[in-house]
């Protein structure tokens, strides 16, 4: 029975691999590089990606022009990553989780400021050699914000198209990074404008549960949730129902996890009582830190849970959940099965010797071997996707 299901899945995968029209955007393997990390540009293995995104440019609160935090890195970015992979595409990301809400909000709400911002963003992208722009306004939280964001994308696309007509350069890509789920209380994203004006969106499918706010252990980037709607599968479904086609969605993969302090070390499954963050101040740990911590401290695990799609390790009373190689493969496979446009990693320096980056690629080279390795739960789960 199991092998019959596997064969059906393989057949569907085979069909989907062969049904892409020639002109469509090819499968995207994107990664963010955050300048404030310990991974120098020259060490990036860009052969593992199709797109690399340099993060983050900021907004000047009086001119609404971009400010570049590290002009040496940002100007070297494109040339450096193209040395190992000449066909890679680079984008400049603007904003990010720490961007000033009132500055972006003021820019988006005023047509003079918007024009200033848009013109400068295009000029800056060209000046530094980026092939696209990514807008990451994660704090947008009012219906005015959302309406203004829609107008911004409209005007931005028009300006980009105009710039292309006037220059001999190819048109800049325009993308946005968004939270997992489009409805946010009463405000919802400007779906129509996003569909018409953006090449695609990066769906940041993680941080559902953080150790500071949730006093129980959890899968912070669960693909599925047996007992709630808080999971990637539900969020991706919501974007599609709201009107963004799967072919515009790029699935975010976290190369980090979270550590909780167990209230009682003998209760250590998902949902066990916890007292707060462990190991670091907010409990966040990169994949390579988790591996190192596990090795040096003699962790139990990694344990794999196929109901949520998550790994976790236990070190005494520290409980750390994350996406390991097997989970990354399952999520990449999910993105393919759902006919999404690809995946985007936050953040490439958090990988450990590029093993997670390679996991996404290898699974396409050796798809059959991957499915042969799945246990029964994985096969059942994948068969539900159809
Ligand atoms: C970069 O990735 C490629 C493809 O997986 C691999 O062959 C190569 O060894 C990697 N290089 C480094 C320096 O890790
Ligand atoms: C912002 O722009 C103003 C006016 O162009 C300039 O005087 C100021 O130095 C800029 N601030 C930063 C932080 O770049
Ligand atoms: C954000 O920008 C506004 C101006 O737009 C400024 O008044 C405020 O101090 C800034 N906030 C932070 C935290 O930098
Ligand atoms: C936009 O900002 C400019 C310059 O501060 C101001 O003159 C104009 O009234 C503002 N427009 C709106 C719609 O707020
Ligand atoms: C929106 O977010 C900003 C920044 O986080 C916050 O200051 C503001 O109170 C929020 N507004 C609403 C309506 O939630
Ligand atoms: C592009 O060319 C049009 C006329 O064809 C002109 O009106 C416009 O100002 C130019 N825009 C830029 C950004 O050069
Ligand atoms: C690995 O972890 C140990 C302790 O758990 C720490 O002392 C060491 O600095 C870590 N090494 C790296 C490269 O993070």
From TrEMBL:
A Pfam family it matches: Glyco_hydro_18
Signal peptide segment: 1-24
SUPFAM superfamilies xrefs: (Trans)glycosidases, Chitinase insertion domain
Superkingdom field: Eukaryota
GO terms under cellular component: extracellular region
Ranges of residues in domain GH18: 27-367
Example of a GO biological process term: chitin catabolic process
Gene3D superfamilies: 3.10.50.10, Glycosidases
GO molecular function, one term: chitinase activity
Record bears the keyword Signal: yes
InterPro entries noted in UniProt: Chitinase_II/V-like_cat (IPR011583), Chitinase_insertion_sf (IPR029070), GH (IPR017853), Glyco_hydro18_cat (IPR001223), Glycosyl_Hydrlase_18 (IPR050314)
Annotated keywords: Signal
Protein name: GH18 domain-containing protein
Originating species: Salix udensis
């Amino acid at each position: 029975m199991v092998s019959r299901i596997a064969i059906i899945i393989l057949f569907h995968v085979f069909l989907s691999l062969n049904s892409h029209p020639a002109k469509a955007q090819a499968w995207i393997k994107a990664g963010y590089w955050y300048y404030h990390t310990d991974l120098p540009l020259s060490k990036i293995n860009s052969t593992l990606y199709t797109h690399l995104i340099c993060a983050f440019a900021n907004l000047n609160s009086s001119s609404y022009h971009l400010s570049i935090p590290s002009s040496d890195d940002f100007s070297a970015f494109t040339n450096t990553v193209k040395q190992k992979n000449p066909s890679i595409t680079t984008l400049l990301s603007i904003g990010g989780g720490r961007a000033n809400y009132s500055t972006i909000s003021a820019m988006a709400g005023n047509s003079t400021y918007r024009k200033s911002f848009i013109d400068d963003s295009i000029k800056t992208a060209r000046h530094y050699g980026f092939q696209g722009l990514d807008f990451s306004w994660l704090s947008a939280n009012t219906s005015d914000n959302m309406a203004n964001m829609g107008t911004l994308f409209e005007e931005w696309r028009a300006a980009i198209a105009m710039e292309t007509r006037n220059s001999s350069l190819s048109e800049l890509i325009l993308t946005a990074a968004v939270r997992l789920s489009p409805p946010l209380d009463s405000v919802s994203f400007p779906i129509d404008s996003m569909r018409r004006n953006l090449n695609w969106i990066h769906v940041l499918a993680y941080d559902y549960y953080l150790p500071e706010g949730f006093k129980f252990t959890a899968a912070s980037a669960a693909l599925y949730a047996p007992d709630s709607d808080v999971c990637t599968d539900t969020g991706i479904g919501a974007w599609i129902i709201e009107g963004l086609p799967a072919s515009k969605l790029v699935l975010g993969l976290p190369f980090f996890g979270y550590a909780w302090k167990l209230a009682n070390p003998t209760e250590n499954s998902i949902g066990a009582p916890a007292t707060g963050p462990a190991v670091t101040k907010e409990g966040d740990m990169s994949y390579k830190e988790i591996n190192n911590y596990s090795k040096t401290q003699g962790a139990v695990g990694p344990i794999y849970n196929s109901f949520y799609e998550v790994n976790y390790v236990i070190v005494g009373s520290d409980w750390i959940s994350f996406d390991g190689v097997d989970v990354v493969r399952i999520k990449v496979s999910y993105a393919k099965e759902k006919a999404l446009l690809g995946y985007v990693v936050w953040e490439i320096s958090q990988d450990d010797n590029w093993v997670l980056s390679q996991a996404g690629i290898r699974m396409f080279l050796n798809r059959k071997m991957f499915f042969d390795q799945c246990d029964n739960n994985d096969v059942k789960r994948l068969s539900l996707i159809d």
